């Protein structure tokens, strides 16, 4: 592993960009300070230094944002789908023009290497393009009832004002994955980005403004008090939908709050993805897929492979090969050339990752490379490979959210499936095999919302993203994504020929 020391100072390009990022709340088409004057510091995880200070919403600001979303709701719902589509398409174009700025901003506040931030701009942007194409395809159906006495008309309508709560790990994509389908469907939104990475969402609100999104359709309220700002909005009967991406723990709290008004919800929650390597796999491809599925985003992805289940006959070769590759990884500030793994988001994440590795080691696991936090400024953790991980260790059962590749051997297919499914989560899974029938058995047998079959990256705007079990409810992306923001209405009318 090569460690690159974080640059001490923010360079001129970074300063210039930060000066152009809005620092206010975006409510009703206006940039405003918080009513109570609250502020929020946003730091660079690779240095710990404050990048900028922005307004922090208080509960009244939150309700004002909901007022704005409600005031704009009827007009936006009546805006022709073609017009909504053109605005989203324009937003995608503007994002392409500003892609380098967005990539740098994502890297600065979240830490991922610049090339990965560029990848996020592409991925996040695709939701704008995809849903601009879906906005004009909201169709219904017309049918004759079985008795032949009536006609059934099924139509879809915008659900109404939505609260969108996003996490810090993909500051752009988690926002566009919700905002784009909501706007395509004709809904207005209040967006509450994560307090650790709110700058990208604020900068993106500028794109939406410039693309012609009318005032009040999108409102953005960063806050350092998520709970006290979100709860009164969720309690408001005018809110019609809550879409949340984040931890299962917080998702459960929000589901309880949403139950009070029987609010429509979409929940994109945590994962504990198994990555299965069978002895018939193309091992070169499995190693490449493993590195992508584990170390992209420093392992801070809900789809990150969490448990590598490897058939015993190939476990030594697989472990040796990944350990050699991980050992050579370059760690550093994401803005530096050649960096492959950036910092973790904060000191809490480093402490959690260290504790998980320590627990596994105390139960007999072997650290092949890495294993520790890195000294110096910033919140870096060495890319790590751990073998012989006992299935009862926390490392096996917990969502790691860090750059730790943990390997557990298995003997046969039944054991692999049993281990893979032995979790309350069910977001993503990965399988490497050359046996088509086995691949199909995995597709049917694994309890997961998404499966990478000989593929280490699965996210795509055209596909339905989401989990089963405690990984969530609903889907984002794909043709399914827009329906999270539509209600279904059925109209009965008599047979017109009688
Ligand atoms: P988190 O649950 O701590 O926070 C997510 C968001 O909820 C943030 O905006 C936060 O400010 C807000 N929040 C926290 N407590 C709240 C409360 N009581 N009321 C209202 N809002 C509250 O999660 P995180 O640490 O930001 O993100 C990491 C988690 O997100 C991981 O578990 C990861 O798997 C999950 N995630 C899931 C997906 C998915 O699509 N399934 C995608 C990305 C991340």
Element layout with pairings:
Blueprint: E1 2-3, H1 12-20, E2 25-27, E3 30-32, E4 39-43, E5 50-55, H2 59-78, H3 81-97, H4 99-110, H5 114-134, E6 141-144, E7 150-158, E8 162-165, H6 173-185, E9 189-192, H7 199-211, E10 218-220, H8 226-235, E11 241-245, H9 248-259, E12 264-268, E13 273-277, H10 283-295, E14 305-311, H11 312-327, E15 330-331, H12 347-362, E16 366-369, E17 384-387, H13 394-397, E18 404-410, H14 413-421, E19 428-432, H15 436-445, E20 450-453, E21 472-473, E22 486-494
Parallel strand pairs: 1-15, 8-9, 8-11, 9-10, 11-12, 13-14, 13-19, 14-18, 17-18, 19-20
Antiparallel strand pairs: 2-3, 4-5, 6-7, 7-22, 12-21, 16-17
Helix pairs in contact: 2-8, 3-5, 3-6, 3-7, 4-5, 4-7, 5-6, 10-11
Bound molecules: nicotinamide-adenine-dinucleotide.
């Amino acid at each position: 592993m090569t460690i690159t020391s974080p640059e001490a100072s923010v360079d001129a390009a970074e300063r210039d960009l930060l000066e152009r990022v809005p620092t206010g709340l975006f409510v009703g088409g206006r940039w405003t300070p918080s009513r109570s004057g609250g502020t929020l510091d946003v730091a660079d995880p690779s240095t710990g230094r404050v990048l900028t200070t922005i307004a922090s919403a208080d509960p009244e600001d939150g309700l004002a944002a909901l007022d704005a979303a409600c005031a704009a709701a009827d007009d936006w719902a009546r805006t022709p789908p073609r017009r909504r589509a053109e605005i989203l398409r324009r937003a995608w174009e503007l994002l392409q023009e500003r892609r380098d700025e967005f990539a740098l901003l994502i890297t600065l506040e979240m830490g991922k290497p610049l090339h990965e931030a560029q990848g996020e701009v592409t991925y996040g942007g695709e939701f704008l393009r995809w849903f601009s194409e879906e906005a004009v395809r909201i169709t219904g159906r017309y049918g004759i009832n079985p008795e032949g006495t009536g006609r059934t008309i099924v139509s879809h309508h915008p659900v109404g004002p939505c609260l969108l709560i996003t996490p810090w790990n993909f500051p752009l994509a988690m926002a566009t994955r919700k905002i784009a389908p909501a706007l395509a469907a004709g809904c207005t939104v209040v967006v509450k980005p994560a307090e650790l990475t709110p700058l990208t969402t604020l900068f993106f609100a500028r794109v939406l403004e410039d693309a012609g999104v009318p005032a009040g359709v999108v409102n953005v309220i960063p806050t350092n008090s998520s709970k006290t700002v979100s709860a009164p909005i969720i309690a408001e009967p005018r809110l019609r939908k809550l879409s949340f991406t984040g931890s299962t723990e917080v998702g459960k709290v929000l589901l309880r709050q949403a139950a009070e008004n029987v609010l429509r919800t979409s929940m994109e929650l945590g994962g504990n993805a198994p990555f299965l390597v069978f002895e018939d796999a193309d091992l070169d491809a499995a190693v490449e897929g493993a590195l992508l599925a584990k170390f992209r985003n420093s392992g801070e992805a809900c789809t990150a492979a969490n448990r590598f289940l490897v058939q015993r006959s190939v476990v030594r070769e697989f472990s040796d090969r990944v350990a050699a590759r991980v050992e050579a990884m370059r760690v550093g500030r994401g803005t530096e050339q050649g960096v492959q793994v950036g910092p973790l988001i904060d000191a809490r994440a480093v402490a959690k990752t260290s504790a998980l590795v320590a627990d596994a080691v105390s139960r007999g696991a072997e650290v092949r490379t890495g294993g520790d936090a890195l000294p110096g400024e910033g919140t870096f953790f060495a890319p790590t490979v751990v073998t012989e991980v006992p299935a009862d260790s926390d490392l096996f059962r917990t969502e790691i959210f860090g750059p730790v590749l943990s390997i557990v051997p298995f003997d046969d297919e039944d054991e692999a499936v049993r281990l893979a499914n032995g979790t309350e989560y069910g977001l993503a899974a990965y399988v490497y095999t050359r046996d088509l029938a086995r691949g199909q058995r995995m597709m049917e047998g694994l309890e997961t919302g998404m499966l990478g079959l000989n593929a280490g990256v699965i996210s795509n705007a055209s596909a339905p993203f989401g989990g089963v079990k405690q990984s969530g409810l609903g889907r984002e992306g794909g043709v399914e994504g827009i329906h999270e923001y539509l209600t279904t209405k059925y109209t009965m009318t008599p047979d017109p020929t009688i």
